[in-house]
Amino acid sequence: MLALMFQPFRRAFDFRGRARRKEWALFVLLQMVVVIGALVLGIRLLPDENMGDGLLGLPLAYVAVFGLPMLALQVRRLHDSDKSGWWVLVSLVPYIGLGMILWLMLLPGSWGPNRFADDPRRSWEGDLFE
Question: Residue range 86-90: average pLDDT?
Answer without folding.
Answer: 94
